[in-house]
Amino acid sequence: MTDLVLETSNLTRFFGEKCAVYRLNLKVPKGVVYGFLGPNGAGKSTTLRMVVGCLRPTYGKIKVFGLNVFSDRVKVMEKLGYLPEKPVAYPYMTPMDFLVYMGRLSGLTRKEAVEKARELLDFVGLGRLAYSKVNTLSAGERQRLGFAQALINEPEFLVLDEPTSNLDPVGRFDILNKVRRLAEEKGLTVLISSHVIPEVERVSDYVGIINNGLLVVQGRISDLIAEEEDEYLLEVSDSKKLLERLRKEDYVIEVRARDHKSVYLKVDLNKSKALWLTLPKILAEEKLALYGFRPIGDPLERLFLRRLGVAR
Ligand SMILES: Nc1ncnc2c1ncn2[C@@H]1O[C@H](COP(=O)(O)OP(=O)(O)O)[C@@H](O)[C@H]1O
Ligand SMILES: [Mg+2]
């Protein structure tokens, strides 16, 4: 059995009549970045709040490092870092004071807390704002501060609720790279929620897709999308010729010429091997030059849309 950092069973939360999360069985293996994807209102934040012990489930179990989040709260919190959806920091404190304070709360000495705070402020790119008041920071800067706060106790498991939602594209890229580095260099396990698919794809090894409170799919991204690369764009010397030949192949679901040199092709997943075997032959027989061949669309996005019932 793989080592699971997080395991939930039948995790469920109602708000009155409204069911926000229903019978979720999340499995987050050790050392991976797990992307928790879903549209707005899907139940991501509710799930994460329960996982970190901020919100009681209506029913269901949560194990973090094999421990019960509620009854072994202190032990779990020692190993856990959490960036909430709306990070909180005292408005009249400076980022430096806030981090030192949080560091002290997590058991560091004053000297350790100051050192750690400096290091983290630099790490998240807030070094120059270390002594500004929190209430003068932008939403993005507060999010960076929240990220630093989540790391103050050197957690082994990092839970990030849409950590890039207030950042510009450069900031997003920067934070996501840092998440990836933490996982690779320090062996952290990360659970990161987002509604932005390419973001998740960039950093994650695993993905779980939630919709209307239900987990729709979960697994290793490379396994999940291995079956998804079924649409291609081929650039050839004569698209009409290729089109005529491909129409006769039984692995082809759809084929059409985009213009006189490019062909769109959709292939039956179960028969896609035939494509690799016959295409070179077709090209040779028809004396066609192949200038380009690439899968189109984003496979994870296609999976996401398909599982949500939006496409195909
Ligand atoms: N405290 C609450 N009271 C009532 N409904 C809530 C509360 N928190 C969340 N919800 C509802 O639960 C659903 C899931 O919300 P949330 O977990 O915040 O979704 P996400 O983070 O995926 O956008 C939404 O319909 C939301 O309105
Ligand atoms: Mg949310």
Q: Let me know the number of strands.
A: 15
Biggest sheet strand line-up: 7-8-9-4-10-11
CATH class of the largest domain: Alpha Beta
Q: Write the H/E string, N to C.
A: EEEEHEEHEHHHEHEHEEHEHEEHEH
What is the architecture of the largest domain at the second tier of CATH? 3-Layer(aba) Sandwich
Q: β content, as a range?
A: 25-35%
Structural class: alpha/beta
**Helix fraction?**
25-40%
Named once each, the bound ligands are: adenosine-5'-diphosphate, magnesium ion
Shape: elongated
Number of helices: 11
Cα distance, first to last residue? 35 Å
In CATH, the homologous superfamily of the largest domain goes by the name P-loop containing nucleotide triphosphate hydrolases
Radius of gyration: 24 Å
Q: State the major sheet.
A: 6 strands, mixed
- Number of discrete domains: 2
Please name the CATH topology of the largest domain. Rossmann fold
- Point out poorly predicted stretches: none
Mean pLDDT: 92
Looking at this protein, list some descriptive labels.
single chain; 312 residues; alpha/beta; Rossmann fold; Alpha-Beta Plaits; 2 domains; 6-stranded mixed sheet; 11 helices; elongated; binds adenosine-5'-diphosphate
Structure description:
- 37% of the residues lie in helices and 29% in strands.
- The strands form three sheets. A six-stranded mixed β-sheet has the order 7-8-9-4-10-11, sandwiched between helices. Strands 1, 2, 3, 5 and 6 form a five-stranded antiparallel β-sheet that branches.
- The chain is an alpha/beta fold and 312 residues long.
- The mean pLDDT is 92.
- It is built from eleven helices and 15 strands.
- Magnesium ion (MG) binds next to helix 1.
- Magnesium ion binds at residues 44-45, 85, 162.
